[in-house]
Specification:
The protein is α/β, with parallel strands linked by helices. Helix content is about 40%, strand content about 20%.
């Protein structure tokens, strides 16, 4: 399965009974949500992320896709997925490349907060964002800074005016305290999507 070959024809082949649960949830989304996406299969995760963005565009929402991957390659994947070029030309969809931040913990945290402001600059509600601010969460500092930012966003989410999806490759999270990191991340979101392999996974709401 290759994510960039997926398009609306794939949906026609699916019935409500055969559609993966994460897809069903994304299609049912009405109110703004802070969503954690935990995945093992990158291509499956991209399908979920792209579907989230596509549904927002169809509703007239402005969308941001921020990633550590090359922005040009992501644009090509969006086009091959079936997102029309005019969404990029009109600024309705922007792809931003997140850079690895260097320095001590305070410096990295300050730079990451500036990245958040850059992502939000010029956004008009309602909007959708797919992003994780700290690209490398395989170190204690990386994941702890990311978690601090997640908690900050979640505390003030009523003022956020849009939906946010935060993707995490489970195997890429710092391993010595991975179980605790995942639990803390879970409690810092309204909804968690677990997507191990294509067609599998579920959606649950953490007990706050």
């Amino acid at each position: 399965m290759e994510v960039i070959s997926a398009n609306c024809d794939t949906d026609i082949m699916m019935t409500l009974d055969t559609m993966p649960i994460p897809f069903r949830y994304i299609d049912s989304l009405e109110e703004k949500q802070h969503i954690a996406l935990f995945y093992d299969d990158l291509e499956y995760a991209l399908l979920i992320e792209f579907r989230f963005i596509k549904n927002g565009l169809l509703k007239g929402e402005q969308c941001i896709y921020a990633t550590e991957e090359d922005s040009g390659s992501i644009v090509l994947k969006f086009l091959r997925y079936g997102i029309p070029l005019h969404y990029f030309q009109t600024g309705k969809l922007r792809v931003m490349q997140m850079r690895e931040r260097c320095g001590d913990r305070d410096e990295i945290l300050k730079k990451c907060k500036n990245d958040i402001e850059e992502i939000r600059h010029g956004l008009l509600p309602p909007f959708r964002i797919v992003s994780r601010i700290v690209p490398n969460v395989s170190t204690p500092d990386g994941i702890s800074i990311e978690l601090e930012l997640e908690k900050l966003v979640h505390r003030h989410f009523e003022d956020f005016c849009g939906s946010l999806m935060c993707p995490y490759n489970i195997s890429g999270i710092e391993q010595t305290k991975r179980k605790q990191w995942l639990e803390d991340l879970r409690l810092s979101h309204h909804v968690c999507i677990y997507a191990p392999k294509f067609g599998q996974g579920g959606v649950f709401c953490p007990c706050q």
